[in-house]
Amino acid sequence: DAGVIQSPRHEVTEMGQEVTLRCKPISGHDYLFWYRQTMMRGLELLIYFNNNVPIDDSGMPEDRFSAKMPNASFSTLKIQPSEPRDSAVYFCASSLSGLDYEQYFGPGTRLTVT
Amino acid sequence: DQQVKQNSPSLSVQEGRISILNCDYTNSMFDYFLWYKKYPAEGPTFLISISSIKDKNEDGRFTVFLNKSAKHLSLHIVPSQPGDSAVYFCAAGTRQLTFGSGTQLTVLP
Hints:
The complex is a heterodimer of chains A (about 110) and B (about 110).
Chain A: E1 5-7, E2 10-13, E3 19-24, E4 31-38, E5 42-50, E6 53-56, E7 65-71, E8 74-79, E9 88-95, E10 104-105, E11 109-113
Parallel strand pairs in A: 2-11
Antiparallel strand pairs in A: 1-3, 3-8, 4-5, 4-9, 5-6, 7-8, 9-10, 9-11
Chain B: E1 4-5, E2 10-14, E3 19-25, E4 32-38, E5 45-51, E6 56-59, E7 62-67, E8 72-77, E9 86-93, E10 97-99, E11 103-108
Parallel strand pairs in B: 2-11
Antiparallel strand pairs in B: 1-3, 3-8, 4-5, 4-9, 6-7, 7-8, 9-10, 9-11
């Protein structure tokens, strides 16, 4: 398996623009997680899905952020409008159901908002 | 409120010696604990885990110890190798994981 795939790997955009980050989880995994990593806050969970349904979005910083999972093999995280403080590395991870809770991470998208 | 803390931001160890990375947590409801390793420009990679019913889990050079009464988790790497140089994150929870801030391990040749 190719692992979790994220695109783009790098995104540079201007303040006010819409940004869409994409994720393809590992086939057969029914949990999907979006994280943000910053120097100040470390690795923080934004939202996670189970069987394409959002379960907990309490980590989403504000209404400018939204996430969707239209099917089992694709998810998006959208920021509209983007702000410089959104600059961070965004990771997607997936995991299987069951009692082993290991999450498998993608390579991340480095977002820079100028 | 940091529920998972890694108080040492960095650690340097000589090749062949033992590396010990520490992690403390505050939430007694956590029942699954994991360690991840992260290289620059890559996502975190799962390393080893332990459930709350155990106090030790071993996988090759890596051993994780859990002290539930002290709410303390540690990762031992023996012997340490230069390729082990990376940032190590501990995580706790169940389905939803809370991550520590990471410890940069440098193994000196």
